[in-house]
Design a protein that fits this description.
119 residues; mainly alpha; 5 helices; two-stranded antiparallel ribbon; elongated; two-stranded antiparallel sheet
């Protein structure tokens, strides 16, 4: 699962120069949103042995990217790739968490906009 905000790299670079506190808040929000996504995926994952559910991880990739990965394997293949019919749990989690992540990101982006508008 990945949420993409267009222009985020450029925004973060400008923030790092002009307002490091807001830059840090943005980076923290990306990580928190990734963890929120991982929690949703774990909550929707089917449980047989628990291997799939326990392999769900939130990650951040640099200061402007975050997401969720599932690292469990089944018979040597990545679990979602081998058993596509069971990926529905991932789609359900995305549907559940996307509005929450959007609200969180809007909140931090609004704070950034207010700071640059002088408000």
């Amino acid at each position: 699962m990945q949420v993409v905000v267009e222009g985020l790299d450029e925004l973060r670079q400008a923030l790092a120069r002009m307002n490091p506190e807001l830059d840090k808040a943005l980076q923290e929000e990306i990580g928190a949103s990734a963890r929120l996504g991982a929690d949703a995926v774990q909550g929707n994952a089917p449980v047989r042995s628990g291997l799939l559910k326990s392999s769900v991880r939130a990650f951040t990739d640099g200061p402007t990217a975050g997401g969720v990965e599932v690292t469990a394997t089944r018979r040597g293949y990545p679990y979602p790739q081998k058993v596509n019919r069971q990926r529905g749990f991932f789609d359900r989690a995305l549907t559940e968490v996307a509005p929450k992540v959007q609200k969180r990101m809007e909140k931090v982006l609004d704070a950034i906009a207010r700071a640059f508008a002088g408000g």
